[in-house]
Amino acid sequence: MALLSADEILAADDRRYEVVEVPEWNGDVRVRSLTGRERDNFELSLQDGKKGNTKENFRARLVALCAVDESGKLLFTNKQQVVLLGNKSVSALQRVFDKCNEMNGFSEEDIDELTEDFGGAPDESSTSA
Questions:
Q1: Under a CB-based contact definition with an 8 Å cutoff, are residues 32 and 16 in contact?
Q2: Which of 5, 53, 65, 128 has its CA 20 to 30 A from that of 38?
Q3: pTM (predicted TM-score)
């Protein structure tokens, strides 16, 4: 195999698309792979303490970054739509989320790290019950 030049790498069409059947929604959802920058920004958005970023609605947020129409345009383009997506059936959302994980190289370890504090008990300094 020949070594690639910078121009050849930058010109390569390397984004993948797949269709996920979602019977709960009576149809299919087309998802795409993320760019390196999109994945980095997604991971950064989950870090606590940075400009109000949160791990809340993790599944819907990833699906929103990957779900596209036939021309490759994002289906969910505003925060309210992502909130509403998070209110959909977990079995349907999880099916699409799983495909997004697979396509974008998220390992079980990555997911565990990104969702580390989900459902944890309040810390000892908390005054709430």
A1: yes
A2: 5
A3: 0.79
SS3 state at 69: coil
Any idea what DSSP says for residue 20? E
* Termini Cα distance of the chain: 62
Yes or no: say if 57 and 83 are a contact pair by the CB < 8 Å rule.
yes
**Phi, psi values for residue 20, rounded to 5°:** -115, 125
Q: Tokens standing for 99?
A: 């495909």
**CA-wise closest residue to 71 among 17, 3, 11, 10:** 17
Instruction: Dump pLDDT digits (tens) for 22-75.
Output: 999 999 999 999 999 999 998 888 776 555 556 788 899 999 999 999 999 999
Length of the chain: 129
* Angstrom distance (rounded) from CA 13 to CA 102: 19
Q: What is the DSSP letter of 74?
A: B
d(CA 56, CA 53): 9
Residue ranges and CATH numbers for the domains of the chain are 16-113 (3.30.2220.20)
